[in-house]
Fold this protein.
Amino acid sequence: MQTEVVSELFPLLAAANPETLDWLMSVAVEHQYPAGRAVLMEDAWGNAVYFVASGWVKVRRHSGNADEAATLAILGKGDFFGEMAVLDESPRSTDVIALSSVKLLSIAAGRFVQTLFKDPQLHHRMLQLMVRRLRQTNLRFQLRDQVPAIKLIHTLVSLADAYGEIVATGVEIFNLSPKDLADVSDISADEVSKILSKLQEKGWVLTKPDRQVMLLPNLLQMNQLLNRSAS
């Protein structure tokens, strides 16, 4: 993958100086996974940082029951994961599952940490993005008293803003299951199904199961609703 393309695709790596970026791409390894495949397993030691070149993944954590897992986050093209286990040199506390076919780039832990020491701009940008994730987590706590519809709309808008593909009729995101949407929105799967039905009736959400796509034609109205609920 050319460094110019990488710089545009990954917000984190866009902060690296050209020499750093060239070196990182020379040591990066490309991976491809089908939908449903585990990319990283919980309790495995962090040996690399991964960048999503295409596709969607979910980050989840298992509960006491080995068969039960809660989805903590949805990540799409341009994002990264695995950095926490690399930085604190501890086993991973979550696993990562491919939701669609996924192409990833990985950079070995030692090389990535070495690069952070050598390139202050990259180091600073990584801190910024990690703080942004923390703010997003805080916002989810602030929404805990909101009605389920606001929580779900916030999730859909956030995914569209972060990873959505702009098309002529709106913004497309991955058509997530009710369970995954429920987990990341802190509501029940039944509530997700009922709210999505109402949003579809309003024309705010259209699903295309054959393409695993959810179309959001009215992001402006959804954002206005969120702003009114916050005031």
Q: What stands out?
A: DSSP finds nine helices and twelve strands in the chain.
